[in-house]
Design brief:
The chain has 382 residues and is α/β, with parallel strands linked by helices. The protein is built from 12 helices and 13 strands. It folds into 2 domains: 234 residues, Vaccinia Virus protein VP39 (Rossmann fold, 3-Layer(aba) Sandwich); 93 residues, no CATH class. The two termini are 29 Å apart.
Protein backbone atom coordinates (compact mmCIF):
# COMPACT_ATOMS: atom_id res chain seq x y z
CA UNK A 1 0.00 0.00 0.00
CA UNK A 2 1.36 3.41 -0.95
CA UNK A 3 1.92 5.92 1.84
CA UNK A 4 1.48 9.57 0.92
CA UNK A 5 3.66 12.14 2.68
CA UNK A 6 2.82 15.80 2.07
CA UNK A 7 5.61 17.43 4.07
CA UNK A 8 9.17 16.21 3.83
CA UNK A 9 11.83 18.68 4.89
CA UNK A 10 14.41 17.90 7.57
CA UNK A 11 14.13 19.47 11.00
CA UNK A 12 17.15 21.45 12.07
CA UNK A 13 18.67 20.96 15.48
CA UNK A 14 18.73 24.75 15.97
CA UNK A 15 14.98 25.18 15.67
CA UNK A 16 13.01 22.32 17.22
CA UNK A 17 9.24 22.62 17.15
CA UNK A 18 7.55 23.73 20.36
CA UNK A 19 5.01 21.56 22.19
CA UNK A 20 2.65 22.53 24.98
CA UNK A 21 1.62 19.67 27.26
CA UNK A 22 -1.83 19.84 28.87
CA UNK A 23 -3.03 17.49 31.64
CA UNK A 24 0.69 16.79 31.85
CA UNK A 25 0.77 14.69 35.02
CA UNK A 26 4.38 13.75 35.64
CA UNK A 27 5.43 14.82 32.14
CA UNK A 28 5.67 11.44 30.42
CA UNK A 29 4.28 12.76 27.15
CA UNK A 30 7.06 15.33 27.20
CA UNK A 31 9.63 12.56 27.60
CA UNK A 32 8.29 10.98 24.44
CA UNK A 33 8.37 14.36 22.68
CA UNK A 34 12.12 14.58 23.25
CA UNK A 35 12.78 16.10 19.83
CA UNK A 36 10.38 18.93 20.60
CA UNK A 37 11.03 21.80 22.92
CA UNK A 38 8.41 21.69 25.69
CA UNK A 39 7.35 25.31 26.02
CA UNK A 40 4.96 24.91 28.95
CA UNK A 41 2.82 22.39 30.77
CA UNK A 42 -0.42 22.35 32.74
CA UNK A 43 -1.99 20.14 35.39
CA UNK A 44 -4.42 20.72 38.24
CA UNK A 45 -3.23 17.89 40.53
CA UNK A 46 -0.79 19.06 43.23
CA UNK A 47 0.96 15.69 43.58
CA UNK A 48 1.46 15.40 39.84
CA UNK A 49 2.64 19.00 39.63
CA UNK A 50 5.26 18.29 42.28
CA UNK A 51 6.47 15.25 40.31
CA UNK A 52 6.54 17.29 37.10
CA UNK A 53 8.69 20.01 38.64
CA UNK A 54 11.04 17.44 40.15
CA UNK A 55 11.67 15.85 36.76
CA UNK A 56 11.32 18.86 34.42
CA UNK A 57 12.70 21.81 36.42
CA UNK A 58 13.25 24.06 33.42
CA UNK A 59 9.72 23.88 32.02
CA UNK A 60 7.08 26.43 33.11
CA UNK A 61 4.15 24.64 34.73
CA UNK A 62 0.71 26.21 35.13
CA UNK A 63 -0.74 24.36 38.12
CA UNK A 64 -4.39 25.18 37.55
CA UNK A 65 -7.70 23.97 36.21
CA UNK A 66 -7.49 24.24 32.43
CA UNK A 67 -10.87 26.01 32.50
CA UNK A 68 -9.24 28.86 34.42
CA UNK A 69 -6.53 29.46 31.81
CA UNK A 70 -6.81 31.93 28.97
CA UNK A 71 -4.69 32.53 25.91
CA UNK A 72 -3.32 35.64 27.61
CA UNK A 73 -1.79 33.45 30.34
CA UNK A 74 0.31 31.56 27.79
CA UNK A 75 3.07 33.30 25.88
CA UNK A 76 4.34 32.19 22.49
CA UNK A 77 2.89 30.12 19.67
CA UNK A 78 2.99 26.32 19.90
CA UNK A 79 3.54 23.96 16.99
CA UNK A 80 1.86 21.12 18.88
CA UNK A 81 -0.65 21.02 21.72
CA UNK A 82 -0.80 17.64 23.45
CA UNK A 83 -3.76 16.90 25.73
CA UNK A 84 -3.97 13.71 27.79
CA UNK A 85 -7.33 14.72 29.19
CA UNK A 86 -8.74 12.85 32.22
CA UNK A 87 -10.13 9.48 31.27
CA UNK A 88 -11.87 8.19 34.39
CA UNK A 89 -15.36 8.98 33.14
CA UNK A 90 -14.63 7.30 29.80
CA UNK A 91 -12.60 4.30 30.93
CA UNK A 92 -14.05 0.81 30.63
CA UNK A 93 -12.98 0.38 34.27
CA UNK A 94 -14.90 3.46 35.41
CA UNK A 95 -18.48 4.64 35.54
CA UNK A 96 -18.59 5.71 31.86
CA UNK A 97 -20.02 9.15 32.51
CA UNK A 98 -18.79 10.47 29.16
CA UNK A 99 -17.40 13.83 28.16
CA UNK A 100 -20.19 15.68 29.96
CA UNK A 101 -18.96 14.28 33.27
CA UNK A 102 -16.80 16.50 35.49
CA UNK A 103 -13.33 15.09 34.85
CA UNK A 104 -13.47 14.09 31.19
CA UNK A 105 -15.38 17.28 30.46
CA UNK A 106 -12.05 19.03 31.06
CA UNK A 107 -11.42 18.42 27.35
CA UNK A 108 -13.82 21.27 26.62
CA UNK A 109 -11.77 23.56 28.84
CA UNK A 110 -8.76 22.66 26.74
CA UNK A 111 -10.72 23.25 23.54
CA UNK A 112 -11.92 26.63 24.77
CA UNK A 113 -8.26 27.55 25.16
CA UNK A 114 -7.49 26.37 21.61
CA UNK A 115 -10.31 28.56 20.28
CA UNK A 116 -8.88 31.56 22.13
CA UNK A 117 -5.44 30.87 20.67
CA UNK A 118 -7.03 30.59 17.23
CA UNK A 119 -8.73 33.96 17.62
CA UNK A 120 -5.35 35.44 18.51
CA UNK A 121 -3.66 33.83 15.51
CA UNK A 122 -1.66 31.47 17.72
CA UNK A 123 -3.43 28.12 17.31
CA UNK A 124 -1.12 25.14 16.81
CA UNK A 125 -1.00 23.39 13.43
CA UNK A 126 -1.03 20.02 15.22
CA UNK A 127 -3.19 18.83 18.12
CA UNK A 128 -3.11 15.42 19.79
CA UNK A 129 -5.79 14.29 22.24
CA UNK A 130 -5.00 11.07 24.08
CA UNK A 131 -7.65 9.11 25.96
CA UNK A 132 -8.89 5.63 26.67
CA UNK A 133 -10.35 3.58 23.83
CA UNK A 134 -13.69 3.83 25.62
CA UNK A 135 -14.07 7.27 24.04
CA UNK A 136 -14.97 5.48 20.80
CA UNK A 137 -18.18 4.12 22.31
CA UNK A 138 -18.87 6.56 25.16
CA UNK A 139 -22.27 8.16 24.79
CA UNK A 140 -23.08 5.75 22.00
CA UNK A 141 -20.25 7.28 19.98
CA UNK A 142 -21.48 10.85 20.50
CA UNK A 143 -18.47 11.87 22.59
CA UNK A 144 -15.96 10.79 19.95
CA UNK A 145 -18.02 12.51 17.27
CA UNK A 146 -18.18 15.71 19.31
CA UNK A 147 -14.40 15.89 19.69
CA UNK A 148 -13.81 15.22 15.99
CA UNK A 149 -16.50 17.68 14.95
CA UNK A 150 -15.02 20.46 17.08
CA UNK A 151 -11.70 20.00 15.33
CA UNK A 152 -13.25 19.74 11.87
CA UNK A 153 -15.29 22.92 12.36
CA UNK A 154 -12.05 24.71 13.27
CA UNK A 155 -10.60 23.70 9.91
CA UNK A 156 -8.47 20.78 11.04
CA UNK A 157 -8.14 17.49 9.24
CA UNK A 158 -8.71 14.85 11.86
CA UNK A 159 -7.96 11.17 12.24
CA UNK A 160 -7.23 8.72 15.02
CA UNK A 161 -5.10 5.73 15.91
CA UNK A 162 -5.72 3.10 18.57
CA UNK A 163 -2.30 2.07 19.87
CA UNK A 164 -1.45 -0.61 22.41
CA UNK A 165 1.71 0.04 24.43
CA UNK A 166 2.26 -3.74 24.39
CA UNK A 167 3.95 -3.30 21.01
CA UNK A 168 6.82 -1.63 22.87
CA UNK A 169 6.41 -2.52 26.54
CA UNK A 170 5.25 -5.57 28.52
CA UNK A 171 1.97 -3.91 29.48
CA UNK A 172 -1.41 -4.30 27.80
CA UNK A 173 -2.44 -0.65 27.45
CA UNK A 174 -4.60 0.30 24.44
CA UNK A 175 -5.13 4.04 24.08
CA UNK A 176 -6.81 6.29 21.54
CA UNK A 177 -4.88 9.15 19.93
CA UNK A 178 -6.92 11.71 18.00
CA UNK A 179 -4.57 13.70 15.77
CA UNK A 180 -5.67 16.91 14.08
CA UNK A 181 -3.62 18.98 11.60
CA UNK A 182 -4.19 22.30 9.88
CA UNK A 183 -1.82 23.84 7.38
CA UNK A 184 0.49 20.82 7.56
CA UNK A 185 0.01 17.16 6.69
CA UNK A 186 1.59 13.97 7.87
CA UNK A 187 1.75 10.56 6.20
CA UNK A 188 -1.62 9.00 5.38
CA UNK A 189 -3.09 5.84 3.89
CA UNK A 190 -6.29 5.57 1.82
CA UNK A 191 -8.17 3.50 4.37
CA UNK A 192 -7.87 1.75 7.73
CA UNK A 193 -4.76 -0.42 8.15
CA UNK A 194 -3.88 -2.72 11.07
CA UNK A 195 -2.70 -2.58 13.75
CA UNK A 196 -3.49 1.06 14.57
CA UNK A 197 -6.84 1.35 12.77
CA UNK A 198 -8.80 -1.21 14.74
CA UNK A 199 -12.23 -2.60 13.98
CA UNK A 200 -13.79 -0.50 16.75
CA UNK A 201 -12.07 2.63 15.40
CA UNK A 202 -13.39 1.88 11.90
CA UNK A 203 -16.86 1.35 13.38
CA UNK A 204 -16.66 4.66 15.25
CA UNK A 205 -15.57 6.39 12.05
CA UNK A 206 -18.61 4.93 10.30
CA UNK A 207 -20.89 6.54 12.89
CA UNK A 208 -19.45 10.02 12.38
CA UNK A 209 -21.63 12.66 10.69
CA UNK A 210 -20.90 13.07 6.99
CA UNK A 211 -19.61 16.61 7.58
CA UNK A 212 -16.95 15.22 9.93
CA UNK A 213 -16.03 12.32 7.66
CA UNK A 214 -15.20 14.84 4.93
CA UNK A 215 -12.44 16.16 7.21
CA UNK A 216 -11.25 12.67 8.20
CA UNK A 217 -7.87 11.18 7.27
CA UNK A 218 -6.33 7.82 8.05
CA UNK A 219 -2.95 8.67 9.51
CA UNK A 220 -0.11 6.27 8.75
CA UNK A 221 2.30 4.99 11.38
CA UNK A 222 4.83 2.21 10.89
CA UNK A 223 4.46 -0.91 13.01
CA UNK A 224 7.46 -1.25 15.35
CA UNK A 225 9.82 -4.20 15.48
CA UNK A 226 8.71 -7.02 17.72
CA UNK A 227 8.95 -6.29 21.45
CA UNK A 228 11.81 -8.21 23.05
CA UNK A 229 11.10 -7.78 26.78
CA UNK A 230 8.53 -9.30 29.09
CA UNK A 231 7.16 -8.50 32.53
CA UNK A 232 9.74 -10.60 34.36
CA UNK A 233 12.59 -8.54 32.88
CA UNK A 234 11.26 -5.31 34.43
CA UNK A 235 10.62 -6.58 37.94
CA UNK A 236 12.79 -5.77 40.91
CA UNK A 237 14.91 -8.58 42.42
CA UNK A 238 12.96 -10.97 44.61
CA UNK A 239 14.96 -10.02 47.70
CA UNK A 240 14.26 -6.30 47.21
CA UNK A 241 10.46 -6.49 47.50
CA UNK A 242 7.92 -7.44 50.15
CA UNK A 243 6.10 -10.71 49.59
CA UNK A 244 2.81 -11.73 51.18
CA UNK A 245 2.96 -14.34 53.89
CA UNK A 246 1.50 -17.80 53.27
CA UNK A 247 -1.90 -16.99 54.77
CA UNK A 248 -2.36 -13.84 52.72
CA UNK A 249 -1.15 -15.53 49.55
CA UNK A 250 -3.57 -18.42 49.95
CA UNK A 251 -6.47 -16.03 50.64
CA UNK A 252 -5.65 -14.08 47.48
CA UNK A 253 -5.32 -17.15 45.27
CA UNK A 254 -8.58 -18.55 46.62
CA UNK A 255 -10.32 -15.73 44.73
CA UNK A 256 -9.43 -17.29 41.37
CA UNK A 257 -12.30 -18.43 39.18
CA UNK A 258 -11.83 -21.91 37.65
CA UNK A 259 -10.28 -20.60 34.41
CA UNK A 260 -7.72 -18.51 36.25
CA UNK A 261 -7.01 -21.28 38.76
CA UNK A 262 -6.23 -23.53 35.80
CA UNK A 263 -3.79 -20.93 34.46
CA UNK A 264 -2.12 -20.76 37.85
CA UNK A 265 -1.87 -24.53 38.20
CA UNK A 266 -0.31 -24.83 34.74
CA UNK A 267 2.24 -22.18 35.59
CA UNK A 268 3.09 -23.89 38.85
CA UNK A 269 3.54 -27.23 37.07
CA UNK A 270 5.73 -25.80 34.31
CA UNK A 271 8.97 -26.33 36.22
CA UNK A 272 10.71 -23.16 35.04
CA UNK A 273 10.03 -19.85 36.76
CA UNK A 274 6.70 -18.36 35.65
CA UNK A 275 5.71 -14.75 36.32
CA UNK A 276 2.12 -13.59 36.15
CA UNK A 277 0.13 -10.45 36.83
CA UNK A 278 -3.35 -10.08 38.21
CA UNK A 279 -6.13 -7.80 39.34
CA UNK A 280 -9.02 -8.31 41.71
CA UNK A 281 -12.30 -7.70 39.90
CA UNK A 282 -15.94 -7.74 40.93
CA UNK A 283 -17.88 -10.08 38.66
CA UNK A 284 -21.50 -11.14 38.58
CA UNK A 285 -21.96 -14.91 38.83
CA UNK A 286 -25.36 -16.58 39.12
CA UNK A 287 -26.87 -13.19 39.86
CA UNK A 288 -24.45 -12.37 42.67
CA UNK A 289 -21.45 -10.05 42.75
CA UNK A 290 -18.26 -11.83 43.75
CA UNK A 291 -14.66 -10.72 43.96
CA UNK A 292 -12.27 -12.60 41.67
CA UNK A 293 -8.53 -12.63 41.08
CA UNK A 294 -7.88 -12.69 37.33
CA UNK A 295 -4.40 -13.76 36.26
CA UNK A 296 -2.35 -13.70 33.06
CA UNK A 297 0.92 -15.50 32.36
CA UNK A 298 1.55 -14.21 28.84
CA UNK A 299 4.53 -11.99 29.67
CA UNK A 300 2.39 -8.86 29.96
CA UNK A 301 1.19 -6.86 32.90
CA UNK A 302 -2.42 -5.79 32.87
CA UNK A 303 -3.18 -2.16 32.06
CA UNK A 304 -1.94 0.05 34.89
CA UNK A 305 -4.86 1.72 36.58
CA UNK A 306 -5.64 3.93 39.55
CA UNK A 307 -8.25 3.45 42.29
CA UNK A 308 -10.22 6.34 40.75
CA UNK A 309 -10.39 4.33 37.54
CA UNK A 310 -12.40 1.62 39.26
CA UNK A 311 -9.78 -1.05 39.79
CA UNK A 312 -7.51 -2.37 42.50
CA UNK A 313 -3.72 -2.39 42.64
CA UNK A 314 -2.03 -4.95 40.42
CA UNK A 315 -0.48 -8.13 41.83
CA UNK A 316 2.61 -10.06 40.81
CA UNK A 317 2.43 -13.85 41.16
CA UNK A 318 5.59 -15.95 40.78
CA UNK A 319 5.71 -19.72 40.47
CA UNK A 320 9.22 -21.11 41.08
CA UNK A 321 11.01 -23.82 43.03
CA UNK A 322 7.76 -25.54 43.91
CA UNK A 323 6.31 -22.41 45.51
CA UNK A 324 3.73 -19.81 44.56
CA UNK A 325 4.43 -16.35 45.91
CA UNK A 326 2.44 -13.14 45.54
CA UNK A 327 2.95 -9.45 46.17
CA UNK A 328 1.86 -6.08 44.91
CA UNK A 329 3.40 -4.35 41.91
CA UNK A 330 5.69 -1.51 43.04
CA UNK A 331 5.68 2.09 41.86
CA UNK A 332 9.12 1.73 40.31
CA UNK A 333 7.99 -1.33 38.37
CA UNK A 334 4.95 0.59 37.17
CA UNK A 335 7.24 3.37 35.94
CA UNK A 336 9.31 0.85 34.00
CA UNK A 337 6.12 -0.49 32.46
CA UNK A 338 5.43 3.04 31.20
CA UNK A 339 8.86 3.27 29.58
CA UNK A 340 10.39 5.49 32.29
CA UNK A 341 13.96 4.78 33.36
CA UNK A 342 15.06 4.58 36.98
CA UNK A 343 16.45 8.12 37.02
CA UNK A 344 12.87 9.44 37.05
CA UNK A 345 12.01 10.78 40.50
CA UNK A 346 8.82 9.19 41.75
CA UNK A 347 6.70 10.79 44.48
CA UNK A 348 7.09 9.38 47.98
CA UNK A 349 4.62 6.64 48.77
CA UNK A 350 3.62 3.70 46.61
CA UNK A 351 0.06 4.91 46.22
CA UNK A 352 1.12 8.26 44.76
CA UNK A 353 3.67 6.66 42.44
CA UNK A 354 1.13 4.17 41.14
CA UNK A 355 -1.48 6.89 40.64
CA UNK A 356 1.02 9.00 38.72
CA UNK A 357 1.91 6.14 36.38
CA UNK A 358 -1.62 4.77 36.08
CA UNK A 359 -2.84 8.13 34.77
CA UNK A 360 0.08 8.64 32.38
CA UNK A 361 0.81 7.91 28.73
CA UNK A 362 3.46 5.37 27.74
CA UNK A 363 6.67 7.10 26.66
CA UNK A 364 7.57 4.84 23.67
CA UNK A 365 4.10 5.30 22.18
CA UNK A 366 4.46 9.08 22.25
CA UNK A 367 7.95 8.80 20.78
CA UNK A 368 6.68 6.62 17.93
CA UNK A 369 3.90 9.10 17.15
CA UNK A 370 6.31 12.02 17.28
CA UNK A 371 8.93 10.42 15.06
CA UNK A 372 6.58 8.74 12.61
CA UNK A 373 3.75 11.25 12.24
CA UNK A 374 4.06 14.57 14.05
CA UNK A 375 7.60 15.57 13.11
CA UNK A 376 7.21 14.62 9.44
CA UNK A 377 4.15 16.87 9.31
CA UNK A 378 5.95 19.80 10.91
CA UNK A 379 9.29 19.34 9.18
CA UNK A 380 8.43 21.63 6.29
CA UNK A 381 8.07 24.56 8.69
CA UNK A 382 11.56 24.44 10.18
Amino acid sequence: MTIRVEASAVLTAAAPPVAWEFFAGGGLAGLGLARFGIGLANDIDAMKATAFRANHPGIPLHEADVWSLSAGDLSGTPDLCWASSPCQDLSLAGARGGLQATRSGAFWGFWQLIRQLDAAGRAPPVIVVENVAGLLSSGGGADFAAVCQAMAVAGYRVGALEIDAALWLPQSRPRLFIVAMRGVAGPTVPGPVAPFHTARLAAAHGRLPETVRRSWVWWSLATPARRNSDLAALLQPDDAVDWFDTTRTEALLALCAPLHRTRLDRAAAAGARQVGAGYRRVRTEAGHKVQRLELRFDGLAGCLRTPAGGSSRQYVVVCADGRIRARRLTGREAARLMGVDDSYRLPPGEGAALKLMGDAVAVPVVRALADGLLLPALSGRF
